[in-house]
Amino acid sequence: MCTSATVPVRTLASAWITPALPLQSTHLRPHHLCPKRQVTSPRPATVAILEESPRKVISTSLREDSKQSETHVHDLTDPSMVFENFDESPKPQSVSVTGTLPYYLHNHKYYRLGPARFEEPHKDGVMWKATHLFDGISMLSSFYFDVINSSVVFRSRINSDRLLRAIHETPSTEYRNFLISPSEKTFWQQLSTWKPPSFDSETGFPYLNYGVTLEQIPGKGFCARTDGSISQVVDPETLKPLGQFRFSELNPKLSGSGSMAHGMLDDATGEYFNIVWDYYPGKVNYQVFCTNSQGETRIVSTIREPARYMHATTITDKYVIIGFAPVRIDFLKLALSMSLADAIAVPKEEGVKFLLVSRETGEVVNTFQHEYFSFMHFVNAFERDGDVVLDVISAQGLEDMTSFDMDIVKTKGQLPPESSMYRIVMRNVETSTDGRASKSPSRDMKVITVSETAGDMPTISPLFKQKDYRYVYTLAFYENVMAGSVQKIDVTTGEAIRFVKPGHILGEPMFVPSPSSTAEDDGCVLVLALNTITRNSAMIVLDAKEFVEISQAELPVAMPSGLHGYFGQAS
């Protein structure tokens, strides 16, 4: 039986992890919604906690004058099991569903990708241990919805299998993590044992962990990606890796080593956008590129900026939006410590700036600058009456990648940092300025607080990408527990409804619209939940409008909740 309570919230709350990939289903048609109300001022969110289990969840209001809450109970036995090894299930298995699956899920698949194995033996018997969350060997999972038989067919597979094999076949003295904890070795030990990244002699590619996002890249197919210019092509049926490719294969000018883990596919035109750049001191070329539906790739624009760590880009109908935060790489530290996490430097006095690049001409149409705030994931962007509206997740401390060292996340049982959702309104885009950035915040850029309890890993209805919209679905803290809830936020009011499943760690929510929808939230939300008490997982389906559980498929195994997902029609 579901109960609810309304809790005013004023503190920030989140987990670090990012927008999901779009629904690639050709039978869905775009719909328009009722008029939207613009957010005009910051306001606290109202969160309704929906408890679906008899197990009691205690929740108390946070005081207006304090960021401290009273003690809460989430009834988790061991949330650190998220960072234990998960076994793959490569053969498809069918499980029955309790409740009712929405008819439009039939013959569709939901994929999850993320770290799954954190300890493996080296050739010499010494145990390799992931020292950073993003070094966990990644696993790809799929869930096929059979509505006719009221069942879900699941399977999973380690997709970074060559990296796993490299660990098994390499002595511990000859192997290093991509992200090394500063506390793992002393400076002199690191200096004396430094080795360049290992290359797979069979493929000619470095051993990489493809464990962040899943994207459909025209001409290449279904791909697992990370923050690099090398992608892994995956069989969407068997989940087996089919090979790797560099973006330079799409266009020889795309020779850099870095790229956005989150590229953007325009569902209307079939065009895929991303950015490639290199990491070295000084200014580098950021190559904005577009691959059309036939797989032909052109360089849209080349921009000179200092090398930064960047994670996502987004688009509107007319523009590619590039957000430059001062997340710099200290190359001396990188050379000496071998740790990308430890080499991040953030000169906040530089502020942030957003470039609007014409998708058609490649011209930088305008540049907007503001005092510093962090951002990594974009929620949505759209054009409105000559303005560009961009919604982002902003998490304090997000730039400190050492916060995700395994010794920290396992000890605290949660991921920093807490986060808000900001709406950035860039006014009179093509008429207000001459396009040159100012050293002071632009008068034509306004930053509005939408929610102070935004969570992270935002997804929206794919029918409202690049359009004015109302609802976003995020993963959030609950009772100080990492990924303890998922929530639905109304971006016009800041109000939110939160779903909690006691005893469970939840994954990124994926919204799936109903083909017959008449409102933006007509549809369902898919959530992979890990039961830390019985130590198995379940695929949960929520009604998106009421945000309550309508069906569940309980799995006989535990599966990692993962980082990002993808939903599409089964081939």
TrEMBL record:
The answer to whether UniProt assigns keyword Iron to this entry is yes
Q: Which GO terms describe its biological process?
A: carotene catabolic process
Give the record's cofactor note, including how many are bound. Answer: Binds 1 Fe(2+) ion per subunit.
Q: Does the keyword Metal-binding apply?
A: yes
Q: Name one GO molecular function term.
A: metal ion binding
Report which superkingdom the organism of origin falls in.
Eukaryota
Keywords for this protein: Iron, Metal-binding, Oxidoreductase
Q: Which cofactor does it need?
A: Fe(2+)
Task: Report residues binding Fe cation.
Answer: H262, H311, H377, H564
Family statement: Belongs to the carotenoid oxygenase family.
Q: Cite the PANTHER family for this sequence.
A: BETA-CAROTENE DIOXYGENASE, CAROTENOID ISOMEROOXYGENASE
Write down what this protein is called: Beta,beta-carotene 9',10'-oxygenase
